[in-house]
Design goal:
15 helices; alpha+beta; 19% strand; 2 domains
Length: 414
């Protein structure tokens, strides 16, 4: 428990004029170091959150929150499954799909592709295809017309445009071995999500056309789900699969894209650790400052001890001094970091115009801006980390001051 006398002594030492300019300079650098470290952590973590949100939005633009597939990748009565899934708590929409892994060709150009058969009427409820169309529309995938919508990068690699044809090759196992099945499709649209894994691989065709390629008849591969809360996808998808039967398999976006989000989390953790070193260096400066203050104030500490101030009281007085430096630095860091995090995209754009350069060129990066997402819990964790480092840095100097022996300190004092 801090007493008024201990707080007064700590504040008095903090603003004492007898301290050398060098000690005052180190104190100021410690305070600024804490402020810069806290501000940098707030800004960088907010930008990492923004990139995570951007990545999630782009991945889910062409994929659903979850999917339910039938036994052995075949679902016969899919209309009943769609109706049952849509009635499940947390599910807002459901749509059937057929998944084909094959090759798309145009003359001598071949490219591995994931061809997805979709229902043009139901598909907009579970994905954002229409919002990402560069040419054409989802309605162009009419039953029996053999239309196909390609990702922008996939179309460029195949060298085709809207109105031209591509050949879908799907391997089929027969008694004599693998025999390719060929189907001719006409490009009716091109989409762009902004991610190579989708723009360079994915193609969309009509649900019945895809089922015909795989000889599924009226069956499909499975049903895709759109949920009220995308973060509840693992629990909701498993619940729907259990409701439908033990043979149904549930998958959600966190499984299908686990590697991307794991990479973002690792990068976010490493950036937190690296930038925390800035605060740690500032905390070491606080140690140096307080050690010099203790050395400078040995005789005064001895007098306080002879007047009845306990060793614990002396320790708490120096804790007040170090913690106050840390708190002022943290406060300045918050006042600097939060406005920067909220306006980082505007600031980056201003720097690009002022310096005449592109921070993130659109021809190199799929995300050509610096997105930011400031989250309260992250700010609280950053403040707690900074306070822990600053408070911990005061322990040794405060302990050293508390061990000051009055007789030894006053023996050579004149």
């Amino acid at each position: 428990m801090f007493r008024p006398l201990e707080i007064f002594v700590g504040l008095r030492y903090l603003r004492a004029r007898r301290l050398s300019r060098f000690v005052s300079f180190i104190s100021l650098m410690s305070l600024l170091g804490v402020a810069v470290g806290v501000a940098a952590l707030i800004v960088v973590i907010s930008v990492m959150n923004g990139f995570e949100n951007e990545l999630r939005q782009r991945l889910l633009a062409m994929t659903s929150h979850a999917s339910i597939s039938g036994p052995e990748g075949r679902l016969e009565d899919w209309s009943r499954t769609v109706d049952l899934a849509q009635k499940a708590p947390g599910v807002t929409a459901a749509a059937p799909y057929v998944e084909i892994q094959g090759m798309l060709g145009n003359g001598a150009r071949l490219k591995a592709a994931l061809v997805r058969g979709v229902d043009p009427i139901r598909e907009p409820a579970v994905s954002q295809v229409d919002d990402n169309m560069l040419m054409g529309s989802l309605d162009s995938l009419e039953d029996g017309k053999k239309g196909i919508i390609l990702g922008r990068l996939l179309a460029a690699q195949l060298g085709v445009a809207v109105g031209e044809s591509v050949t879908l090759m799907v391997p089929r196992i027969q008694s004599g071995g693998l025999v390719p099945r060929l189907r001719r499709f006409t490009v009716t649209g091109i989409f762009e999500v902004g991610m190579q894994e989708l723009d360079g691989v994915l193609a969309l065709v009509n649900l019945r056309d895809a089922a015909g390629v795989l000889d599924l008849g009226d069956a499909v591969t499975g049903v895709r789900l759109q949920l009220e809360n995308l973060f509840s996808a693992p629990a909701v998808s498993r619940r729907v699969a259990e409701m439908l039967g033990s043979d149904f398999v549930a998958r959600d976006w966190t499984e299908e894209n686990a590697s991307y989000f794991r990479a973002v989390r690792i990068e976010k953790t490493m950036m937190t650790i690296i930038l925390s070193l800035v605060v740690a260096v500032a905390a070491f400066n606080i140690v140096a400052t307080l050690v010099m203050v203790v050395t400078d104030k040995r005789s005064e500490i001895a007098i306080l001890r002879t007047l009845g101030l306990s060793a614990g009281g002396v320790m708490r007085a120096f804790l007040v001094q170090g913690v106050l430096i840390g708190l002022v630095g943290i406060a300045l860091g918050v006042l600097l970091g939060i406005p920067l995090a909220l306006n980082v995209e505007t600031i980056a754009g201003g720097l690009e115009r002022a310096l005449g350069l592109e921070i993130m060129p659109s021809d190199v990066y799929y995300i050509a801006r610096l997105p930011s997402d400031l989250r309260g819990p992250d700010v609280v964790r950053i403040l707690a980390l900074a306070f822990f480092l600053c408070a911990g840095s005061t322990l040794y100097p405060a302990y050293r001051a508390a061990r000051t022996q009055p007789a030894e300190a006053l023996r050579y004092d004149h």
